[in-house]
Amino acid sequence: AQRLVNIVTEKLLTVEEAFSHIEPTQLAEFLQPIVEEELSKEPHGELMVKLLRPFLPLVLSHVVANLQKEIEDILDLRSVVLEAFVRDKVVLVELFQKVGRVE
Asked: In whole angstroms, what is the distance from residue 83 CA to residue 63 CA?
């Protein structure tokens, strides 16, 4: 599994490449309803949402842009890929067979 993780994280996709293709404003639009829903669960949440709603798109866009710059420090892609392989053994076996055929 570790060899497949190396192939996926070094040859197929880097986390920087993946995150560089994300448009911060689009992800902010996607995240806003989720953030608002979570905020609304807090004490005085509805009031917080009402007050923050006009600022959330800008704040979330900045958060995403900063994540793009520092993603390597925040996300361990190797661990994410390894956990995905362990969780879904069918994918692991299929990928192992495909890589084995090529080599």
From this structure: 26
